[in-house]
Amino acid sequence: MQLPGTRFSRPTRVTTVGCLLLGNAVIEALTWFLHVYFPKPQVGDVVYPHSLAVIHLAHAVVLVFCGWFLLKGTKWARIAYFIVCAASLADVLMVGLNASLLKTELEAPILRILIGVPALLTPRANKFFAGLDPDRSYAKPTISPLAKGKQQKEGKYDY
User: Is this model's pTM higher than 0.90 or not?
Assistant: First the structure.
């Protein structure tokens, strides 16, 4: 897909991760909205704390920014995505030990880690985030030994 204002296209895997982050942010915001405005506590349920609601909302905002700027190709968004994945992994490991938690709450962070991290570490994604054309080969030209000797005699040491 050709980006407006750029000379090259965005890799499909980067597009996929960015769109998944935006979709995940919508789900997080919806979760926050439902828990805050339509609580349905059952007898014996723990009341949903407001601090957890703020965390859901902040997480949704971070996911929106990461997803949007990943689609734009900014380097810091990819770094922020890796930080979010590390925090999600720590959360999954800590919360996963609690047997009373629903397994559906662990699926989104695990999928985000399993799909997003390898997709953003591909060579095409590295070129995209470096501001280079992902479809072009940037192999360094090789210099024959005869040309090296000639360059050394002429005082050119760029080899």
Answer: no
